[in-house]
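Bug: token stream looks shifted between consecutive jobs. Job 1:
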Amino acid sequence: MAGDGLDRGPVDQGRRSLLRGRPTAVPAPIHPPWSHPDYFAALCTRCGACAAACPEAILRPGDGGYPEVDFGRGECSFCGACADACSEPIFDRTAPPWALRPTVAPSCLAVQRVVCRSCQDACPEGAIRFQPASGGAAQPRIDEAACTGCGACVAACPAGAVTLTHRTGTRQTGSPAHAD
């Protein structure tokens, strides 16, 4: 029961919505960089070594105890400590770290005509720029070629409007992004 002092862990919003008759799409989890999605779940022992090694502290236990990236905690520096700490052959450091793309939701302050460029200021690659749009309000535009998927923009957004999702047409799949 609520209020009984027991920690029941995070609420699974996808399951709760399904049980209420309002199913919602749950985004695919983002596992550590260089982890291969084809055999990640089969080989990961959920030991937590990757999370303990992460100097950015962005890895946390997710569904089933598998490590997931929480960009709300910060960005990935691509240091490779997570891959180095893992004793299983899960990581492929010859490939790109992951195929993520930023998505900007309508709740973005700039989209709502409030001056904000926090995501642009936080982006170490300069992949986010603001361009004037009709009505004079500058809108975020993402240079996907410059974006590394580090997640710096996610934690910086005061409206929580920036998320990273798996790119389509690559070794990982996901939903399309708002980009130009």
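Job 2, same session, no restart:
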Amino acid sequence: MGYRKGYYRKDGTYVQGHFANNRSKSFSKKNNGCMLLILFFIAFTSIISCSESSESTNSTTNSVTGSNSNSNCPTKTCKDFATQAQAQAAYDSNKKCYKNLDGDGNGKACESLK
């Protein structure tokens, strides 16, 4: 809104100044289009950020538990083997899958077994 100055009409009468809406309706329609684009951008970025944070949460959980949900690694513990040699053979066959058999990380699986 703005203040419109007073003016004289062609017939000689004076129109006193007053406040008037200087914006046209087409101007506000253009703003609605921009607003829709801004809202779409905000919604899109929030969806992306939520999906990235859930992926990082899953990878953090998997690294803490020592398992990977996408792999075919069996879940074996030292109790599943009768001797240390059997556990060592399994560990040597795939150290990535059976890393939970080597608790202290020295390369020897299930040291408590004889």
